Amino acid sequence: MAKSLGIFVTTKESLPHVLGITKAAKAKGSTVKVFFTWIATHASKDPLFPTLCEIADDVSICVDSYRKQGYDINDVPTGLTPKKMATQAQHGIIIEDFDCYLSL
């Protein structure tokens, strides 16, 4: 049975690490959900972000944090759908429903 990994991202500099961890977990058959909040929402503008969205099973960002970091909430980052502009409930899902939890 494959494990699941939830990654809670709060730092914008950690995107390359998140991508590497996601690739490794997927290679082992794990389900991966990534949630970006606060200043980590800046990572959604990084050229690597769409690649993460392709590899992970689920990627979402905190819409309130995105707005507070100066972005227009209607400017949905490449790789996401408007539905993935979410609330902190996504963090709760990671805590409750995923076997492993990582915070970066």
Characteristics:
alpha/beta; 104 residues; five-stranded parallel β-sheet
Describe this structure in words.
This protein has 104 residues and is α/β, with parallel strands linked by helices. The chain is 34% helix and 22% strand. It contains four helices and five strands; from the N terminus they run βαβαβαβαβ. Strands 4-3-2-1-5 form a five-stranded parallel beta sheet, with helices on both faces. α2 (49-55) links the parallel β2 and β3. The longest helix has 13 residues, at 15-27. The chain is globular, with a radius of gyration of 13 Å. The model has no long low-confidence stretch (mean pLDDT 96).
Q: What's the structural blueprint in terms of helices and strands?
A:
Elements: E1 4-9, H1 15-27, E2 31-36, H2 49-55, E3 58-62, H3 63-68, E4 85-86, H4 89-97, E5 100-103
Parallel strand pairs: 1-2, 1-5, 2-3, 3-4
Helix pairs in contact: 1-2
Query: What helical percentage do the residues reach?
Result: 25-40%
Order of helices and strands: EHEHEHEHE
Radius of gyration: 13 Å
Query: How is the biggest beta sheet arranged?
Result: 5 strands, parallel
Globally, the shape reads globular
C-alpha end-to-end distance: 26 Å
Mean pLDDT figure: 96
* Number of DSSP-assigned strands: 5
Short description:
This protein has 104 residues and is an alpha/beta fold.
